[in-house]
Amino acid sequence: MTIAGNWKMFFGPEPMELADLDAIVAPPYTRLVDCVEAGLTTYAQNVHWEPQGAYTGEISAPLLLALGVRGSIVGHSERRQSFGETDETVGLRTRAALDAGLHVIACIGETREEREGGEMENVLRRQLSVLEPHPNLVIAYEPVWAIGTGLTATPEICRDTHGFIKTIIDVPVLYGGSVNPGNAEALLSQPCVDGALVGGASLDVESFTAICQTAARIHS
Ligand code: PEP
């Protein structure tokens, strides 16, 4: 069971306070070194497909590996919605990162309109078409309507959608979307749910610790 915290563009907690947790943290770039030095399994929030070059504002897998960073989130819906990320660039980023030796959490998920329009399966199939199974690849199913909204997929939606994803690609699937200490148990105990990608609640040490403890209890 994998629990990962996405700090987005927030300063986030003191890494030393998380040192005992079995979890991944994805802090903003300026805090990567602090997290690595505190001994945390540290991921970036994005990674470019070229090893180096004239790509202002981007970061490459070799540069991250040199810092001691172990992996990267790729294709988060906030990047797809606001920064022009496409399925094609998600595929490029993921392949390059895995080839370079990073782990990848690749995010997929449908919007509310797509789900209500009966398009959910087609959207997920399309987003997954650029990805291939790899021992260091994990998918995060993050329905866009549940991210940062306080709306959570029901445990049944989680179970069914993760089951569907696993018919297409045989890798672990995390759930993401307003996971908190109150709903973690119901979500994480579903079959086919291999962990959680946590946004808002990962910024609070107590909440993130509680979610990690729930995961450990379910796993044991
Ligand atoms: C996320 O950013 O990946 C996320 C799931 O956010 P939140 O938990 O705040 O919905």
What is this structure, in a nutshell?
With 220 residues, the protein is an alpha/beta fold.
Task: Supply database-style keywords.
220 residues; alpha/beta; TIM Barrel; 9 helices; globular; binds phosphoenolpyruvate
Oligomer: single chain
Distance between the termini: 10 Å
Secondary structure: helix percent? 25-40%
Small molecules held by this entry: phosphoenolpyruvate
The gross shape turns out to be globular
Structural class: alpha/beta
User: How many β-strand stretches?
Assistant: 8
H/E element sequence: EEHEHEHHEHHEHEHEH
Poorly predicted segments = none
What count of structural domains?
1
CATH homolog superfamily:
Aldolase class I
Mean pLDDT: 97
**DSSP helix count?**
9
Radius of gyration: 16 Å
In the CATH hierarchy, the architecture is Alpha-Beta Barrel
The order of strands across the largest sheet is: 1-2-3-4-5-6-7-8
Biggest sheet: strands, sense, closure? 8 strands, parallel, barrel
The CATH topology annotation reads as: TIM Barrel
Highest-level CATH class: Alpha Beta
Portion of residues in beta strands equals 15-25%
What's the topology here?
Layout: E1 2-6, E2 24-26, H1 32-37, E3 41-44, H2 61-67, E4 71-74, H3 77-82, H4 87-100, E5 103-108, H5 112-116, H6 120-128, E6 137-141, H7 155-168, E7 173-176, H8 184-188, E8 195-198, H9 205-219
Parallel strand pairs: 1-2, 1-8, 2-3, 3-4, 4-5, 5-6, 6-7, 7-8
Helix pairs in contact: 6-7
The site of phosphoenolpyruvate (PEP) has 13 residues, from strand 8.
